[in-house]
Amino acid sequence: MIAMFWYNGELKQENTISLNIAEPGLIYGATVFTTLRVYQESLDHPLTQWKAHCDRLESSLKAFDWTIPNWQQIQQQAEVLVPHYPVLRLTIFPDGKELITGRFLPQDLPQSQQQGIKGWVANNSLYQRSLPNHKTGNYLGAFLALQQAKKLGFREAILIDDDGNWLETATGNLWGYKQGIWYTPQLKEGILPGIGRSQLISWLKNQQIEVKQTQWNTDLIERLEIIAYGNSVFEIIPFSSITMGEKQLILNPSHPSLKQVRDYYQIGF
What we know:
With 269 residues, the chain is of the alpha+beta class. The protein has helices at 24-27, 50-64, 71-81, 109-115, 140-151, 195-206, 218-221, 258-267, and strands spanning 4-7, 10-13, 32-37, 87-92, 98-103, 117-122, 156-160, 166-169, 173-178, 181-185, 210-214, 226-231, 235-244, 247-250. The strands form two sheets. Strands 6, 7, 8, 9, 10, 11, 12, 13 and 14 form a nine-stranded mixed sheet that branches. Strand 4 (87-92) and strand 5 (98-103) form a beta hairpin. It is globular, with a radius of gyration of 19 Å.
């Protein structure tokens, strides 16, 4: 299938892109990016969170002292892709060039959301993510963890710090639940400030449901009734089991309290 995408102000319909061999994005992974799900084919839909995604990109660009692109132009370009793709990936290079691509939702996403998936704790410092507070093109640590998880027969990898505390998954933020309280790792541990994470925290608090941002150590993890992960594309996916070394956690992906977080995507906006 021929892809449709934008690069440096030009709409292209092909499956390749031409980059200068000295391009920092190619040599160092020097880009920032964000991936978002477009609800009801609208960037203005509250769940799409278009402005939040652009704001996070701009925050990273300013932190790196890179060129800020023309956001109005980028939105106009994205609008062209919206009728064709439910998921957009927006990448910005150091000189302000943009690459906007699209993709489709996984066919088995509804099944994963309902039945849960098997997770694997990537207990190796090799899998730690570079500059975790920013979503940069250097995603090698998370990529390696996810590839190893799949080789071992798991669907998702969980990244940890040097002390064994859980941080996030290879593709999303962690969520846990026990005794009426939702838990998610705190930002100061070194995790990505996910857009979906932020919105879900606000939603739960507005529903008078307690949320704690805290360190995920072994004591907490082994007492959780639900462990799930989420991002702006997959929403919330629970784990049915998680393998951590020689130990395996068995979880209930049909736990009734999952409705509290799923409701955000149904009625939260």
